[in-house]
Structure formats: C-alpha cells, structure tokens
Amino acid sequence: MYACLYVVQTLIPFLLQSQREDERELFSEGLTSVAGGIVALGKFDALHIGHRELAIQASKVGPPFLLSFVGMAEVLGWEPRAPIVARCDRKRVLSSWAPYCGNMAPTEFQIEFSSVRHLTPRQFVEKLLKELGVRGVVAGENYRFGYKAAGDATELVRLCEEYGIGAYIINSVMDKNDYSININSSDVKDRGQVSSTRVRRALAVGDMKYVSQLLGRQHRLILMAKEQEGFRCCKNKLSVPKSCLLNLGPKEGLYEKCYVFIGEDDELLSCNVVIDTEYVHIEMDEVGASCNVVGTQDLSLLRIEFGDSQS
C-alpha cells in the first residue's frame, strides 16, 4: 500500500491540545502563515505523486504546507538546470491537489537555503518550532536533514517528539509503472521510488505516458516571450524559440494529441508539437489559428499540455 503512515500516532492528540496553549505566543512573535500548519519536508522540483502523498498525509492532521528551499543550487554550486514545473505554474498544480487533501490546496512556503545550510538536525527542528511555529511535519522514510545530511527520519521523529512537534514518516511511493525506465542509477537513495530524477529521465527519452503517471497529471510546458520577433507564424503553425521556455520540455521529436492554452483567457486549441534543436513548433488543427493568436496576444504566453503519445 502506498505511503503507509507509521510512528508517533500518539502525537496527534498532543497537537490538538498544545495548539490552543501556544497559539497566543506563536502569533505574538509575528510568525508567517505557516504557523500552526503541518509541513511536508522534501525537494519539490517535480511535484510528482510522491510529493502529493506527503501533502495528503499532512492534510489529515492540519493545514498542509510544502516547505521548499530557495537558492539551493547557487549555494551548493550546482549547474543551472530548467525546473520541471515552471515557477508561475506551481500554484495551479498545488490547487489541483485539493480534492486529495480534504479540499485544502497545499501552500508552498519558501525559506532561503543559506539560512538552514549549516544547521545541525537539532537546530533545524528548533527553527521549525521557534521561528516557523509548525505543529507537525511529514517526511518520507529516506528523508535526510541537517548539515551534511547528518539527520535521518528516525532522528527527525526523536527530535520532534522532544520539542513537542508531531512527526509522521511515510513509506516511499514506489514506481510500479509498466512503462518504467531502467535508470541504472548509482544513487544509493534510489530503491525504485517515484522521484524527480525519474521524471527528468522520462522527459529525456520523450515517454510522455510515463511522465504523466509519475506526475499524476499531464506535463505542461510554459513558453513566454517578451518580444514577438522570435515567433514564426505560417498558416496553422506557430514556432517559438526554445529560449522562451520556462521549464523542462521533452526530447526532440513529434508529440501528438496535445493542447495549447493561449493568453490570459485560456483559449484552448488542439495541436501537435514538434521540438527540434532551436524551436518548439505548435501545429494547430485550425488553419490560420496561429497567425490570429500572434496578432491578438501581446504577452505571448503559451502553455502546452502534452498527450501520452509520441511518433
């Protein structure tokens, strides 16, 4: 069974009891909206079904939040790479989780990674309580935290119990997909669970059906241009430079049965998508549609939702 909840069940009544006792103190310190909530801990690049399961479990105890770190790549010196979910699209994805989370859309709460990088596991938990005012945390069984990843899930439970915070550890959501790609990963953390790495590898080979099943939704590619000069329009074909991409697309090739959302009014058109080395080509079913779009949309915001097929 996916994500079986275990440990610290006795802390649920404690959460409810302590919430009223600490409420005045927490809000008098000027804490942000995450105070009193249940935060899911992890790296939320893809917002895949494993991340959604964390939010589901958090929502069973209180208002669900995702605790995300900003600036991690810059601090750790990682090579820049495109996000799987465009920043401007994350709120839409989280809103789509509301039916799974007791009709509560999880809220993403961001803190600077530089502010927590050198914290010990104990100091990190202290920050969750004293600075953020959280009532509980949810994490996966492989979660590690603290400087140089010194703390594991067991340590998280122990420290949270000591500080009076509810701690909920869930099993990983495993990738049991028939379309699963043999990753051959040397990462010791990879035991076949759903991960952002798997999503990236599925996009790299253009397996959109597999991508959809990992994400729990169709992959949406966002393109935005400040100027229309880079757009090429001919009959029913609109070509947009890859420099306009705000997130990670699939490999070069033809993708059928896609949809494009155009402008702020969300005009929806069926299309095929061809990706080459320089451009994303949107071939719309309606002749002349692309030229009409370019002529009426000043912002040039395009959102492509991929189907499950590639030719």
From TrEMBL:
Pfam families: FAD_syn (PF06574). CDD domains: FAD_synthetase_N. Pathway: Cofactor biosynthesis; FAD biosynthesis; FAD from FMN: step 1/1. GO terms for molecular function: ATP binding; FMN adenylyltransferase activity. InterPro entries: FAD_synthase, Rossmann-like_a/b/a_fold. Its EC number is 2.7.7.2. It comes from the Eukaryota. Residues 36-177 form the FAD synthetase domain. Keywords: ATP-binding, FAD, Flavoprotein, FMN, Nucleotide-binding, Nucleotidyltransferase, Transferase. GO terms for biological process: FAD biosynthetic process; riboflavin biosynthetic process. This is FAD synthase. The lineage of its organism: Eukaryota, Viridiplantae, Streptophyta, Embryophyta, Tracheophyta.
